[in-house]
Amino acid sequence: MESDQQFLETLVKALVDHPEDVTCSRTVDEMGVLLTLDVHADDMGKIIGRSGNTAKAIRTLLRVVGMKNDARVNLKINEPEGGRPPAAMEQGGDATEVVEMGGDEPMEEKTLDEAIDDLKI
After folding, report:
1. What is the pTM for the complete model shown?
2. Same structural domain, 111 and 68
3. Residue 49, pLDDT above cutoff 60
4. Angle between the N-to-C axes of helices 3-15 and 53-68, in degrees from 0 to 180, rounded to the nearest 10
5. Is the domain of 92 the same as that of 70?
6. Contact (Cβ atoms closer than 8 angstroms) between residue 69 and residue 3
7. Domain total for the chain?
8. Angle at the Cα of 36 from the Cα atoms of 26 and 16, rounded to 5 degrees
9. Long-range contacts from 60-68, C-beta under 8 angstroms, 24+ separation
10. For 54-91, what is each residue's pLDDT tens digit?
């Protein structure tokens, strides 16, 4: 295992609740080194961090490790199976929302795109 891959695995395993599910693969091409990280679905938030700050910090550290070894190191974080659903699905519905137009009773159900099209003059 290369030093950059070992560094990434050690770092990520220290951050997550499911270190046994952390896997990292390494590929080298003309663009440099690509480390691909897979973690447990429950740990994605810890790896990404608020506004992506943790992921940015990990990428910065990997860049420093790469410079030490004269290599350009990039990180790809794979979204796990059963990861976060789209925002509309999170709220228990589908992509259809009830659009109200100021009255007490809801209007017909429309997709978000249909509602936006109705707003265009």
Report:
1. 0.65
2. no
3. yes
4. 150
5. no
6. yes
7. 2
8. 120
9. 61/7, 61/11, 62/4, 62/7, 62/8, 62/35, 65/3, 65/4, 65/7, 66/4, 66/32, 66/33
10. 999 999 999 999 999 889 999 999 987 765 555 544 55
Q: Which two structure tokens, joined as six digits, stand for 64? A: 């420093």
Q: Rounded to whole angstroms, what are the CA distances from 118 to 11, 58, 91, 105, 113? A: 50, 44, 24, 18, 9
Question: Domain range for residue 92?
Answer: 87-119
Are residues 45 and 25 part of one domain?
yes
| Domain identity same for 18 and 50 | yes
Does residue 112 lie in a domain region? yes
Are 17 and 40 members of one domain?
A: yes
Tokens in use for 93? 């519905």
Is the Cα dihedral 11, 14, 15, 17 positive or negative? positive
